[in-house]
């Protein structure tokens, strides 16, 4: 599979490029969070402030990435 990272195409999953174990763990937790699964199982309000801040930051990054991807797709579609 190929991944386009802003014009740089790579063959490896972009997450594999993130070397810090805590980054990989945060991404795994975010994947579960998107599916409604939290560590305590009681929703975001029952989680620690740190967990909530990380999930909110990742949600913001995800939204920005989706917006960028849509714009790039529209540019390519209009060519």
Protein architecture, described:
With 79 residues, the protein is mainly alpha-helical. It has two helices and two strands, in the order E-E-H-H. The chain has helices at residues 21-34, 49-77; strands at residues 3-5, 8-10. The protein has a two-stranded antiparallel ribbon. A hairpin with a 2-residue loop joins strand 1 (3-5) and strand 2. Helix 1 (21-34) packs across helix 2. The longest helix is centred in the last third of the chain and has 29 residues, at 49-77. It is globular.
Properties at a glance:
8% strand; two-stranded antiparallel ribbon; mainly alpha; single chain; 79 residues
Brief sketch in words of this structure:
By secondary structure, this protein is mainly alpha-helical. It is 54% helix and 8% strand. The chain has two helices and two strands, in the order ββαα.
Query: What is the mean pLDDT?
Result: 84
- With strands numbered from the N-terminus, the spatial order across the biggest sheet is 1-2
Whole-number radius of gyration?
A: 15 Å
Q: What count of domains describes the coordinates?
A: 1
Strand content: 5-15%
